[in-house]
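Example with several molecule types.
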Amino acid sequence: MRDDGRRPADLRQASIVPGFIGAALGSALITTGRTRVICTANAEERPPSWLTSGGWVTAQYAMLPGATSPRGSRDPGGRGKEIQRLIGRGLRAAVDLRKLNGAGGPISLVCDCDVIEADGGTRTASITGAWVALSQAIDRLLAGGRIAEDPRLAPVAAVSVGLVGEGRDALLDLCYVEDAAAIVDLNVVAVQARGLVEVQGTGEHGVFSRADLDRLLDLADGGLAELFTLQARAIAGG
Amino acid sequence: MRDDGRRPADLRQASIVPGFIGAALGSALITTGRTRVICTANAEERPPSWLTSGGWVTAQYAMLPGATSPRGSRDPGGRGKEIQRLIGRGLRAAVDLRKLNGAGGPISLVCDCDVIEADGGTRTASITGAWVALSQAIDRLLAGGRIAEDPRLAPVAAVSVGLVGEGRDALLDLCYVEDAAAIVDLNVVAVQARGLVEVQGTGEHGVFSRADLDRLLDLADGGLAELFTLQARAIAGG
Amino acid sequence: MRDDGRRPADLRQASIVPGFIGAALGSALITTGRTRVICTANAEERPPSWLTSGGWVTAQYAMLPGATSPRGSRDPGGRGKEIQRLIGRGLRAAVDLRKLNGAGGPISLVCDCDVIEADGGTRTASITGAWVALSQAIDRLLAGGRIAEDPRLAPVAAVSVGLVGEGRDALLDLCYVEDAAAIVDLNVVAVQARGLVEVQGTGEHGVFSRADLDRLLDLADGGLAELFTLQARAIAGG
Amino acid sequence: MRDDGRRPADLRQASIVPGFIGAALGSALITTGRTRVICTANAEERPPSWLTSGGWVTAQYAMLPGATSPRGSRDPGGRGKEIQRLIGRGLRAAVDLRKLNGAGGPISLVCDCDVIEADGGTRTASITGAWVALSQAIDRLLAGGRIAEDPRLAPVAAVSVGLVGEGRDALLDLCYVEDAAAIVDLNVVAVQARGLVEVQGTGEHGVFSRADLDRLLDLADGGLAELFTLQARAIAGG
Amino acid sequence: MRDDGRRPADLRQASIVPGFIGAALGSALITTGRTRVICTANAEERPPSWLTSGGWVTAQYAMLPGATSPRGSRDPGGRGKEIQRLIGRGLRAAVDLRKLNGAGGPISLVCDCDVIEADGGTRTASITGAWVALSQAIDRLLAGGRIAEDPRLAPVAAVSVGLVGEGRDALLDLCYVEDAAAIVDLNVVAVQARGLVEVQGTGEHGVFSRADLDRLLDLADGGLAELFTLQARAIAGG
Amino acid sequence: MRDDGRRPADLRQASIVPGFIGAALGSALITTGRTRVICTANAEERPPSWLTSGGWVTAQYAMLPGATSPRGSRDPGGRGKEIQRLIGRGLRAAVDLRKLNGAGGPISLVCDCDVIEADGGTRTASITGAWVALSQAIDRLLAGGRIAEDPRLAPVAAVSVGLVGEGRDALLDLCYVEDAAAIVDLNVVAVQARGLVEVQGTGEHGVFSRADLDRLLDLADGGLAELFTLQARAIAGG
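Resulting structure tokens for the full complex:
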């Protein structure tokens, strides 16, 4: 049994509130345990200059200083850059960028993931929540006629798994205390019914075998299935 | 009647949720109409080097990019610097800094005011909400024995008033549309039952007379009284 | 009697030298006591991108490192940003921006206020001096046919007043020592014969009442009248 | 057959020149095909302030502007930050940080990986080469008596593999043209005879299955074995 | 005859006002033609950390934006860095740094050279004026007992010379128009009665011979003699 | 005899490898003693905005952190800015910028000089090596028809000379130890058979006479002759 009463394959209590920020084209508040992230999605007129056709999806990730104890810095630093690149790649894998191209030219969708409270798993929560925000933004672009075809391929979600403690227990959805005690930590991003987008396994406090990796990927599969259901309910109700 | 159905001397629908961010020493979510600000207060060991005795209270102010439509920049720029200096001065006026000095030396309290949705009045909402966060942080410093005496003088709150439109109607608590149409815009910061801390009146689209100023200050008085009540309820229930 | 022999309602010895910097379109050196500011005004081809019609007036404010004892930093920081926004708003209130629009398109006037020696009141001296520099620049734009109509509404000037010391004496035009001892400090910006543009009252070391505010505004009125005369003489002689 | 004549499981022509930079404590030039990286390792007196005991190993990664065509920027940006964090984690997994602690206190080893020419695989070449530089630095710290025990656990190396083109061919050690055509790209970092340290699989242009992942990890195994041999020869001869 | 009526070996009309900025330990306003530079010298407690004994003299150089037409940037950029390093080297050559070491430890003197109007020759005017400011600062350190021995070796001054126009006329003390037309431009820094400190000859628009160099150095000698006299008068009267 | 066995007028062992970086339009590795610099030259479409006609040649200079012992910073700082301006001026003196203008408009050539190991004389080695890189780039622009006429005037090279130690021995091509012991240090840049481009003599630890300058320039002449031969061989063989 884990400190918070969960079994190894349990997700934390999770919810997604779509449309949490009225000013944004799309938005969601995702809560998983004590981790909370505000995700917004907005369209910008100017896609990156190196794009020759089609649109783009990019992400920004930051933490409010008050999200952690002790208080953090406002500068996301190298860690923030690494995370926002991961989020951006995950979202792009779930979208047909060629269809983000309307009468007004190609569209760049910016997803801001701002962590308002952090207790582990902020990068995976950001991806799962950003998909709901992005999806709401795409619905509005379609409704407003700014794009003609739905660019969504399938939902994308992410979850963390890890081998924790001396016993190397395989645990799903690590909270901060578990993450700090993890020998191996694996973030898995997948597109529903299609396959994996990103697998990032890191052994900060030890190495891992191919068998460890298989065990962790199995565990992630179950978590992802639940998250896809949560996303679908949020989008349907949004 | 104003666009949102309010009378000239009406505040917007407002609420303060104390303890909104569990990771922070003190925190609050303040909502006034569609404007929402997360305020957190944390103690830092190192007060500014130029302080010779006593503690310090400082503020940081920023907006999430998704808080406005169109999406804003992550760089708070000159406007953000101007606002956070105003918030800091307001909070310091409500605290006896000499008493922010414990066994472990002087304490610096940092109040982060992060706007998650913006519809006018973000700087005044930040001050009103930050007081609740700061107050909760002080309660915990007292409870933990880190300071011996309560440094609070009295609550501080802030409200905006303005002369709006061709008719120069004096309105309380301007939303964004009203603010954009204001000839004169006045931010008033006061410490309950003690007096004014800051009066910042600006005529971006016109000048104003001493009589205008008096009329606006009268209007602010009523709003501040309601905000002190709202703060007291939040602190009592927090 | 004040330390420098002035009565409470006396300005410091002041002068304005128009055309102090030959390289600039407009310029002035303003001296008030030991405070000296070089103000220059120049036209830039590119007004801010968000302007849809009409011109713009903006300000930059900085202090030379040698202007203070001990030596200051070259980075104007948050304080500098706050001050230059105040200067910019004050100047814009005295100009009809729609008329800053010539055959070559809208014109952006940049006023640089560089403090070469600082003894209190640098922000108000900057506004008063920048008006003379701006006025000279406008004369040259008119003479050169770059704008067709005079955009000046009326002169703008500024002065500081404060309640100083235990006796809360109301004093005009605070020098640095008085400013450091001020309970309340009020900066007043006004357009001649039209009204107030900006009123910024701050109680860093105490609060203030509506009666205090009235008393200080009365005191400012007298100082502003003298400064308008000084400006007029400088402009006539420039 | 690949464009450069290699079979799918072939590494590019590779070499490691140890001691390439005489000024550094440890160094190596690694060449793999047209990719070349200068790796240097130096000891710094000041480990990160948050370390309570033991030493640290960190990495910096950059590209010379002339390393790519067209010329690149000197700012490594988000991509550079992501890569140098990966390199640092890989190297730390191969070192017992507690033993980086000598008479003079804990030691921080900084590995600079500067790409002088880039043709794909710069991050994996950086790790493989940095190990040789780090190893030489550790030999000198031991020889000089600055540390008492050898902190090396086992060599660490890295290689990229990918599924390329419409046929989703599994290829080892992608050059730039192959990398640009990859559906899935996987970087694998391993400690010899111990296990995996980092597995980063990304589907920028498509998703991948568990079976794809297995096939790619098998392919990486062969490449890593060759790289460990290359490192051993370089270290023996250095 | 030059455009401003000077003969080839004539300096521009020049003056040095010592003590121009009362807030600084030492200061001077140097005017040469339309070029004007405010020089201040201040003592800082903390000399550079790499100094093992003795004090230090360093310089900062910047231009006010209004000093040139068109208006310049506030960022001194690479040109400013290059110039301030030249000024610093010149001043250090005139001072025995070992004697900048008092009871309170080594002293670092910072000379700020801020150009308020620029018409060529700002770097050489900065050196010549900074010596007067530095000299006044040293007098005060001696008078205040902060240093025991006079660290001055002899005055340092600087002048520009150049070969101008198609005729390659050798001219002393170039104004901006002459500088822009110069084939070769030479800055000469010398310590009175001791020798040269710095000779920087540049052929931006052509090359130069050893004979050209000799001719220019002869011309500089005469200008430097006059500048040493001007400095001596300023210091005597200051 | 010098520490490394050289006579006063001997260059260090030197070589230039042209085409060292295949990705660049032009490149060279220059080695002189233990100093090594990678020079690359690339064409950029956008010359500086202030150019009205003709092309431009500019330089960037940096050191890898591992190039020095102790490890250096990645920020080139003021010293780097000063050096890259010197390199740029030297290269421009050897090129007719009007001829850097093709069918596609004016061309800006950027020469990156990255020091991979530093033992004195990095700025002069950068100029000498950059000429070979630039020359290769120009050959390719001519071969590709991007420019019609050869813009090269003649080769440019640079060398350092100095008066070293108590005996003020005049030495050619100072290594780091000699440079640190130099009373006077002179960098000489010349265009073959045309004349001097830049003469920068600095007395950091003493002054120098006109006779000293002559003696050093004579010594430089011999070194430059050898370097022009080395360049010619490299360009012929490249």
